[in-house]
Amino acid sequence: MLKNDAASPSSVDQLAPDGHPFELTELHNKAGMSVTLMDWGATWLSAILPLKGGEKRELLLGCQTPADYLRQRAYLGATVGRYANRIAKAQITVEGETFHLIANQGENQLHGGPEGFHTRRWKKVKQDEKQVTYQLFSPDGDQGFPGNLTVEAQYLLTEDNRLEIHYQAQVDKSCPVNLTNHAYFNLDGEGIDVRAHRLQLFADRYLPSGSDGLPIGGLESVERTGMDFRQAKTLARDFLKDRCQQRVKGYDHAYLLHRTCGATESPAAHLWSSDNQVQMSVYTTAPALQLYSGNSLSGAPARNGGSYANYTGVALESEFLPDSPNHPEWPQLDCWLKPGKVYHSTTVYHFIAL
Hints:
- There is one protein chain.
- This protein is mainly beta.
- It has one helix at residues 243-248, and strands at 2-6, 23-28, 34-38, 43-50, 56-58, 79-80, 86-87, 91-94, 97-100, 109-110, 123-127, 131-138, 149-157, 162-171, 175-176, 180-181, 198-201, 203-206, 220-221, 233-234, 252-257, 269-272, 278-284, 288-292, 315-319, 336-337, 343-353.
- The strands form 7 sheets. It has a 9-stranded antiparallel sheet, with no helix packed on it.
């Protein structure tokens, strides 16, 4: 079952910056799960799962109205690009030429720049009862990046409560491409501290970061640190135990996944609600997951009309390691997309009522 709904504007505030209404799309499956998406930012707005007891639970942080998404800087549910995460000093070099990107976090660039893909209206190019596909054209020089780029993001809801996100992109000049969705999950429902969730992450190494969120040095072992989630534990258990956590007020770190995770058959992570009624498993073809415990969520407009507090949502962003264009020595696939090649990336969030 599928439903379209263009938000009905009763005031200018309910129009997108281009003067047209936001267009929302709902996907439903026979199991009773529903997912809501928006063309502005190719944004994932909602994920409602039926529980074993019959009630339904919202698992995703979101705003009360589409226009509220323009008033927040947490990237709630947005598709971010061209390059997710941070690029140091907002510059990249390819074939001896340095490109100066537009900075939006101090001297660095975060999530594609101040007018990244989260700030655009994506064109809906395909839709049926199971999926919706959005497309965006990014011209040469957009936010400082080289080359004309065309990107598609497909959201597919399966009958067994998996939301599959498939990205593909092409460029006409070499450019780093790193696409992800910045959903925040709270499997207990909204307004509850997410640090009571249990998390298991299939990664032996992570990137320590400084107070600016950029990597410091190279990959380090999670062994004997609070960064170790190889065995399931609550986010609260070792919270702020490590200096690299203290610098960023919690978890905001990239984990290099086990090589066996680079497919949609082997999980990259599991997350459980504190009441053990919901499990979410993450599968991805991306080499890394960024774990973010919502350290700066405070003030973001909430679905109930109020605002979120810090640590009320957790993000598990599938991507390349941050600042990868400037670190070819890191053990992962090349993040540079070349003309004639196609960028493909898939991430699956599987929701299970326990």
